[in-house]
Design goal:
This protein has helices at residues 32-42, 54-57, 63-71, 86-94, 104-108, 111-120, 153-163, 184-193, 207-215, 226-229, 235-244; strands at residues 5-13, 16-21, 24-30, 47-51, 77-80, 99-102, 125-134, 137-142, 147-152, 167-172, 198-201, 221-224. It has 251 residues and is of the alpha/beta class. The chain has one domain: Alpha-Beta Barrel (TIM Barrel).
Length: 251
């Protein structure tokens, strides 16, 4: 059985790491290069770097910041935000990213998933999905959760899988920053219906939440931000706890 992965996420705005609740009320959380280096040294399995206002503001992800983060870490590194075409992917991979995360651009142009998988390999393409529960079901949102779409979580994830995505990064907007646990029922449904790994995002507040998302949510990886950034959970201690709970993690 593959080891479960622990992934700190750095949401970047104006060159600084920020964290909010339900995608709003952002506060600063530190220098992304320093945080990235610290997480790499602490034993994080991967790192995700999201330029959270790139799509909304219509600009490109900071390539020089990607280069500086990549130079200071020794773990796989996923970059997202403002990626619209293959040359954006090429630029970020050249800057040191191992994978790219696409969200708004994939919903607007699903063919982009096929193109990235074909040109760079499925392992490079992470499709991020921001969704929240509505009376109609789990709806997907664009531009950092600002715009509701006509796509539904499970159908869209299945389409992304079929088009060649290497992983799905699912963030429950309802759980984001609330620290009451991940959306495990939705995660389990995704894991059961897809042939690719599912990364859980949104809701981590205690070590038990990571355990629960691996067991109940059947997630392949768990992503978190503020609990790591503000020192509420230390990665070595989290991995020891998970190992003691019988969950296979890299130590």
């Amino acid at each position: 059985m593959l080891a479960k992965r622990i992934i700190p996420c750095l949401d970047i705005k104006d060159g600084q790491t920020v964290k909010g609740t339900n995608f709003v009320n952002l506060r600063q959380a530190g220098d992304p290069v320093e945080l990235g280096r610290t997480y790499s040294e602490q034993g994080a399995d991967e790192l995700v770097f999201l330029d959270i206002t790139a799509s909304h503001e219509g600009r490109k992800t900071f390539t020089d910041l990607v280069k500086r983060v990549a130079a200071n870490i020794s773990i796989p590194f996923t970059v997202g935000g403002g990626i619209h075409e293959l040359k954006d992917v090429d630029r970020l991979l050249s800057a040191g990213a191992d994978k790219v995360s696409i969200n708004s651009a994939a919903i607007k142009n699903p063919q982009l998933i096929d193109e990235i998988a074909k040109h760079f390999g499925a392992q490079v393409c992470v499709v991020a999905i921001d969704a929240k529960q509505t009376p109609q079901g789990w709806k997907c949102y664009l531009n950092g959760g600002r715009v509701e779409t006509d796509k539904y979580l499970f159908n869209w994830a299945k389409e992304a899988n079929e088009r060649g995505a290497g992983e799905i990064l699912f963030t429950s907007m309802d759980h984001d920053g609330v620290k009451t646990g991940y959306a495990n029922n939705a995660l389990a449904t995704l894991s059961d219906s897809l042939s690719i790994p599912v990364i859980a995002s949104g809701g981590a507040g205690a070590m038990e939440h990571f355990r629960d998302t691996f067991i109940e949510g059947k997630a392949d990886a768990a992503l978190a931000a503020s609990v790591f950034h503000f020192g509420e959970i230390k990665i070595p201690e989290l991995k020891l706890y998970l190992s003691e709970q019988g969950i296979n993690v890299r130590r």
